[in-house]
Design goal:
GO terms for molecular function: asparaginyl-tRNA synthase (glutamine-hydrolyzing) activity; ATP binding; glutaminyl-tRNA synthase (glutamine-hydrolyzing) activity; transferase activity. This protein is mostly helical. It is built from 3 helices and 2 strands. It has a domain of about 40 residues.
Length: about 100
Amino acid sequence: MSIDISTARKVAHLARIAVKEEDLPALAGELSAVLAFMEQLNEVDVEGVEPMTSVTPMRLKRRKDVVTDGNIQKQILSNAPDAREGFFAVPKVVE
């Protein structure tokens, strides 16, 4: 598939990229090369190939999904300019 100059102009506009009029033929050529490479990838036979997330088979480390407060309330509140009863104290904004 070949990209013409008007299509390259439209793609640049949609991507919000400022392209000078004299640079549009080069952009059209580069976009055509990308599409040609994608067509070349479509020719590869991937029948029977399982999808993978890594080149080495390994399981991700997992931990129990447990909700905690971190047990560092005093350390966190020590940075607050004003803390009362275990919470951040802020001035009243709404009357």
